[in-house]
Design goal:
The protein is α+β, with helices and mostly antiparallel strands. It is built from 4 helices and 9 strands. The protein has a single domain, classed as Small protein B (Small Protein B, Chain: A). It is globular and about 50 Å long.
Amino acid sequence: MRPLPVGYTPLTMKPTGVKLIAQNKKAFHDYFIEETLEAGIALTGTEVKSLRAGRVNLRDSYAAVENGELWLIGVHISPYEQGNIFNHDPLRNRKLLVHAHELRRLFGKVQVAGYTMVPTKMYFKDGRAKVEIGLAKGKATYDKRQALAKKEADRDMERAFRRGDRDD
């Protein structure tokens, strides 16, 4: 009996683990992310191939509820280079796959509390494309400046620790 390749489960021969495709760092700068939710994405074949090549941009995208379904709007997935006339539209709206009770809960928070749904990460989990949706509240300009100042102070502190006692 041959040994299994590293990272595969014994019964299904499917890859395990999570492979990060893209992160939306700007979302953490522009919003306070209060909670996150994992959702599947309905994609075409050439979109999956582009995702595997890492050709996706999550900036300026959001999720919205339309006709009782959750949609991912504004995500740019580049056309597959080896594709043909059946290539996909890079900016098309993509349906997100979530349970109905999760959708109702999210929709309630967006309607009542004024939250926004923004994608924070896109990744493959056990071979399936997933997106992490964050329930977010917008930051004011002073909040952004405060976060940048804290990040700068942390960086200076880390530099000082690394230097050790060379500052005589």
